[in-house]
Write a structure and sequence with these properties.
The chain is 78% helix and 0% strand. The protein is mainly alpha-helical and 410 residues long.
């Protein structure tokens, strides 16, 4: 399968979008910021709440565990109440639970509030690409580019916001996110009109049934192991680097910039030249090597390796998104829900197991395990390449609610 280069359609068509698209994309940036927001302040949270690294890492585990389970629910909800209402419901939940997170008196409370935040984020991000695809001018390539740009910008700015606000108090980034999401909900309310509901409602078990397709199951399995490696970097590395919020935020801002550049600018060109599966397999192997460098290098090498990992993660995010959207015959909302249901369990597992593995062994072994996971992901791509070679169909600019659950790429 070869990726299309969205720049062939012209940069001007990408920028000339309706207000509804920009409102949704802007809110998406803030939603993705919430993932990496806590990165620079993890040590500060641990100190402020008298918690261990493994306890604080549960902030990611509860968030993504709920996100994974919610993937079976979001299509069910959006096919009944519509895309606009689903977005607004998700944003409202994020505002409430982000604000409550800032008031936490214990790590247990904070972990619980992050779980509620994860439910809200799942409802929002599972529908945002569909809304952008439905409303964007310039075809599906422009829509995907905008979505990937929002993802990359959010992943880059999240740690920066966390550092700037968290340097004063670890509580402020949570209040800041709630305020930004409140702006997002106003923009969605003002500029996004409701779309007609789809003719067929999605059941809770449809995404699980979709995984019976060999290609989709293979993509989900590979993405599961990739996500374990990805979130070892995101959730465990801040404790290894042990920097101030400012310096840690700067490191992960640079990481996020590379992620955005390689996801939006580099990946389509590499796919057009080498094919998606070669790009994906090679990027996963390079990520494995980089993880070993982070794990065994000195502090400076670990910092550089962390930033560089953003390039491989950006490539992988783009290719996995396209595979999830086009590898099977299942409707995109159903296929994407099943795919995300599988892979987000790894995002929940890595933040929990990486600190535990360090406690059981030493600081190097969590990165070895993550590197092995990336290699397994590449092995699945190689072994199952025949079932993954189906050409991804061009996404048509159909109504957003027809694609109620989409491939959330990070």
């Amino acid at each position: 399968m070869r990726g299309e280069d969205p720049f062939d359609e012209g940069a001007t068509s990408i920028l000339r979008q309706p207000k509804a698209v920009w409102a949704t994309a802007g809110a998406s940036v803030v939603a993705f910021m919430g993932i990496g927001l806590v990165d620079p302040i993890l040590p500060s949270i641990a100190k402020g709440l008298d918690a261990t690294p493994s306890q604080v890492s549960l902030l990611f585990t509860s968030y993504f565990l709920i996100t994974a389970v919610a993937m079976l629910v979001t299509g069910f909800v959006s096919s009944r109440i519509g895309g606009r209402k689903t977005l607004l419901a998700g944003l409202a939940l994020v505002i409430v639970f982000a604000a409550l997170s800032g008031t936490s008196g214990s790590v247990g409370e904070l972990v619980g509030f992050r779980a509620g935040w994860g439910l809200g984020n799942a409802l929002f991000v599972s529908t945002s690409l569909a809304v952008i695809v439905g409303a964007a001018a310039g075809g599906s390539a422009a829509a995907i580019l905008l979505y990937e740009s929002a993802l990359g910008l959010g992943m880059a700015c999240g740690p920066l916001l966390g550092a700037l606000l968290g340097n004063a108090s670890w509580r402020y980034p949570f209040f800041g996110t709630a305020a930004l999401m409140a702006i997002g909900i106003l923009c969605i309310t003002a500029f996004l009109k409701e779309q007609p509901k789809p003719a067929r409602k999605t059941s809770l078990l449809d995404p699980v049934r979709a995984l019976g397709h060999g290609g989709l199951a293979s993509a989900a399995a590979s993405a599961f192991f990739y996500n374990y490696a990805f979130f070892t970097v995101l959730a465990f590395t801040p404790f290894v680097l042990n920097m101030t919020p400012y310096t840690s935020g700067a490191v992960f801002f640079a990481w996020g910039v590379l992620l955005a550049v390689f996801s939006v600018l580099v990946a389509p060109r590499l796919q057009a030249r080498f094919g998606s599966l070669k790009v994906l397999g090679g990027s996963l192997l390079l990520l494995a090597v980089d993880l070993l460098v982070i794990g065994y290098g000195n502090h400076t090498v670990a910092v550089v390796g962390t930033v560089v990992s953003g390039a491989f993660i950006g490539l992988n995010n783009t290719v996995f998104t396209e595979l999830a959207l086009g590898v099977s015959d299942a409707p995109r909302p159903v296929a994407s829900a099943g795919y995300n249901f599988v892979r987000w369990f790894a995002a929940a597992a890595a933040p929990y197991f990486a600190p535990k593995i360090e406690e059981w062994s030493n600081i190097h072994i969590p990165f070895v395990v993550a590197a092995v996971a990336a290699v397994i992901g590449a092995g699945i791509v190689r072994v199952r390449r025949a079932s993954l070679r189906r050409e991804a169909e061009q996404l048509q600019p159909v109504h957003a609610t027809q694609d109620g659950v989409t491939a959330f790429a990070n």
